[in-house]
Amino acid sequence: MRNLKRAVAVLFMLLLAAVVLFFVLENQQPVALVLFGWAAPQVPVAVVVVAALVVGLAIGPLLGAYGLMRGKRKIRAAARRSALAES
């Protein structure tokens, strides 16, 4: 069973790599992004999209961890208030 899971995981990773490679090869048109008057150099569309994906993959877990910590903090504060009210 373990070997089957590994084989499926390897197959999935190879399929994902093939899709990414196909995407990069098909999107070679150069684009220049402009933000607040600043113009970036022309790069292929695939570079822009993959960069946005990587930034999103980095920021998403950080925001999730922040929300989790904030929720835990609220729960601890409510428990403290409840303990003080019972005393």
The CA-CA distance between the termini, in Å, is: 55 Å
Q: What's the average pLDDT?
A: 89
Structural class: mainly alpha
Number of helices: 2
Strand neighbour order, sheet with most strands = 1-4
Question: How many strands?
Answer: 4
Beta content comes to 5-15%
* Number of separate domains: 1
Helical residues, percent = over 70%
- Write down the secondary-structure element order: HEEEEH
**pLDDT under 50 segments (min length 5)?**
none
Categorize the overall geometry. Answer: flat
How many strands, which pairing sense, and closed or not: the largest β-sheet? 2 strands, antiparallel
Radius of gyration: 23 Å
Describe the structure.
The structure is a single chain. With 87 residues, the protein is mainly alpha-helical. The protein has one domain. The protein is built from two helices and four strands. It has a two-stranded antiparallel ribbon. The chain has a two-stranded antiparallel ribbon with strand order 2-3. A hairpin with a 2-residue loop joins strand 2 and strand 3. The chain is flat, with a radius of gyration of 23 Å.
Core attributes:
single chain; 87 residues; mainly alpha; two-stranded antiparallel sheet; 2 helices; flat
